[in-house]
């Protein structure tokens, strides 16, 4: 079954808010890995506490992904380092997502 | 001027960082060092409190908290008068400089130990009390009394950072069990203190060097502020110590606290509560300029000046 | 050249078995990153030894991906925290996968 | 009742955890602390064995292993009789409570040091011997004699966990090189023991607090079991010590081992061998209820009772 | 808007060069996570300093992805452990990539 | 033969690794241990230099550097003459064996402490000086004078690895502040040295065991080289010590350095500068064969032989 995979890369400091936002939109889960990287807001590496990124993945229905993206965009894009992208995935147990 | 070996570790890290040496302490090690240093400072303070009539000190804490607010307002006023920075950035920087750096405090403690000047170890309580007020002030200066993320969230962030929790925890434990109770913990928390501080400063040197590239980007104004404001802060700190009748050693500690800028609690809180402020500005100032300045020049300078001027018996 | 990317997020404790299963199905490699997250079986973070997840990626032919999915499904879905999904990827050196 | 400062570190972590403070020791630090504590306990035991006619102790190990099986069977019987839990969950919990927690043992050791009661340090060997049998029992109670993943895999998992390997390793090294040989290792492994234990308990407090939310979910029955079974276990442990003619200190250690529940070896093994058991149940019981209970109340209680009742010369 | 997601898994030792190559090709950012795994060149885990992998993601235009792939292929495939694959993603703010 | 307890930690790790025990020190801990050991060895050397007319030693450093080149050339010649390996692999292995392992040096230091033989602690400077030349030689043997990644990059990689930076840093700090200045750092860096070394060797045992599977793959020739070349290297090292008029202890250290093979600096540099060399070959030889050999057999052997043959007063 088709679902969307939403990937968000952003500042560690936003983790709590991000998770709230994901749940509020109705997604049933998420996965987080520690990451570092570089983008418009410069290098963000794990060298110092503040600096690192998280990479958050959510598998969900297309409209949920849409809603999370818009919400994040509205709230955080102006002031925070953040990148997000969507792709198509196939899942075996669609009821989980 | 006395040379403390731990300073050389800072220079080693700084040099290695500038040369882009293939070296970095993993963040887990940095965390461990921070935890140990915080507990160590707290325990030492608590042991002293256990032998002091500490209730007498409670009003002093109010005075010290006030000092944090005054320093924050002073920094904000200076930055705004210069017309170089938007309100949010000025408030964020003010929050950093009104608050304090425990790492710098630890260096001052080590310095006093090395030169053999006694001090009030319970000043660790002042560190706790100074950490928070200026951060709240910075938020209020931008958001007024209604922060976006709500006061609950702000309070949690500010009062439950590891700095406050571990210092306060160490103080309480030391106070409860006293010197005798702390004794079995001493090999790790007291005897090894300077060794851990050396490793911590090695890492801080690396960090400061990696941040130093951003100094140029932010211009001469930030550089000047981050070098001059500590002198102001140290003066205010020294005066406060005098008002509180502290010893010469205590005055050096309070001057150092006044001169120091937070690079852990303040950045985290401001990022969430005043996100439009550029975090690069305040972190560069606090970490890449003021911290090295205080470690290398400030602490011995404050001691030198106070040693000459400070009345032998306190205020 | 087209291949499938199979992503499995599951309990760290299963790593050894998972790798065996991947190899048995004929995949030529895999990549693991440490992860944490939340799903039907609650929060799984790295706070305590037992708790964390791994995120395993396998690039392989579609039928191999199918076979691994089914095998994992059969063996582990009932009792373990596990999510898996498939997507399409293009590889440069198809002989590696 | 004597107050051991390390307990305050547990309370500090627990409090900080309940308040959701921004603080956590990285897992690498937790690993390091575990390794050091295990080796430290092992080395101390080994040094003592080196001065003991330890061959004489070998039969005792059989008795202690039996105690683990008895405790596991007892827990299983109680849980099954209550008709509250399926067989697999009952067996998994029984495996946890028949096995032991080295962290709790370390707290008991620290407690005895603080109150100045001598003990058989070689009891570290009993920790090793108690770790495994109840886990095997738990698997057999569900799978019979044919575990899904095969006995090879089970045995590897159970006998080659870090608990057994490092305790046994420490014991052997201490035994081979003796007190004199261990001397150069003492600053890290012996003198700093209580400091490391304090950090470990700080982290355990945080972990216990983060798990404590699950207590409510699992209901009053689990809570009651996790508070009452330790008392039973301590009684069995104390009796075993008496049968083995151990000193008062040794009896406190064995009572503590009986009362403690495994939260490292058992969860890992049961997850793979009895996956249908809910890991949340047993981990909540062992880590969020029994561990804090033993640390805060149990150890001093077992000491108090045994101090009053235990025959001065052992059994 | 459509973009390509290029994922490269390779030896930690190559990080500096990889980042140079990514920037030279005109990509505006990248994200790195620590990884381990197994492939033609054997097991590479984090057990020992030298051994681990990095997993690098770049969201960029198709031709940039193409160029990075070719460059990496030319320079590193013969001598280094390296896997790369491409997939399609949708981004909200195409000007960032 | 004297038994040093730290060796037993290596055996414990090695055994646990072979049995595939569920145990591993996290890489952050390994990093911390490496940093502490490097600084510790550097500081000890620096303190000694502070009391020595160290300018006199400068020319000796040239002699020791030459020894590194000679050992590299010797290894390369042997490997090429055997016609078993392509030029790039021979050069890479030669770089590893001409360079040195600080971990092995630390074991030799601990050994001399245990048997009570004095040594020149400033030999830490020889470690620094030996680390680099053979690596440059290895690159030149394959690339000539034009490495693919440019000399700048090569030099950065080679001279700014953590080995050189931390040893040199420790030496300089020890030299500047002297024994009295280092005193407050001693609980961590000096007293706990053997404890940290024990943990380090535990981890190295695990690593060596996990690598040992690759020995078979690379055949008997590599095994023979990795066991025989250390004897050659030790001989050259002992002779060098004699030429430099070092004490018996110093000769054991220099023999050990000659016998040891780099497994940190050399692999990193060769991977980038001579990527066509198979990194598995040299790492297996250095880490899975030569390191264990030196730790378990080599160091006591070199001591035994030198103790019998070395002229009492040096050369
Ligand atoms: N083109 C890109 N491809 C992959 N990751 C990116 C890209 N741009 C930015 N990132 C990641 O997203 C984070 C925030 O990006 P930015 O807001 O552009 O600074 C960076 O630190 C990177 O980790
Ligand atoms: N919808 C989802 N999107 C991304 N990751 C998920 C999702 N649901 C679960 N996960 C991950 O898969 C793990 C196991 O999921 P579960 O079996 O549902 O508990 C979780 O701990 C998450 O890391
Ligand atoms: N088929 C695959 N699927 C996912 N990751 C792979 C695959 N093959 C290799 N890798 C990863 O890429 C790294 C280098 O691969 P290789 O060059 O084949 O040794 C491995 O260590 C794995 O982390
Ligand atoms: Na300040
Ligand atoms: Na028990
Ligand atoms: Na050598």
UniProtKB/TrEMBL annotation, chains A, C, E:
Pfam families: P-II (PF00543). GO terms for biological process: regulation of nitrogen utilization. SUPFAM superfamilies: GlnB-like (SSF54913). One of its GO terms (molecular function) is enzyme regulator activity. This is Nitrogen regulatory protein P-II family. It comes from Alkalispirillum mobile.
From TrEMBL, chains B, D, F:
Keywords: Membrane, Transmembrane, Transmembrane helix. The keyword Oxidoreductase does not apply. Pfam families: Sbt_1. The chain crosses the membrane at residues 6-21, 28-45, 57-79, 91-112, 124-142, 163-182, 188-208, 220-244, 250-269, 281-303. InterPro entries: Sbt_1 (IPR010293). It comes from the Bacteria. This is Sodium-dependent bicarbonate transport family permease. It comes from Alkalispirillum mobile.
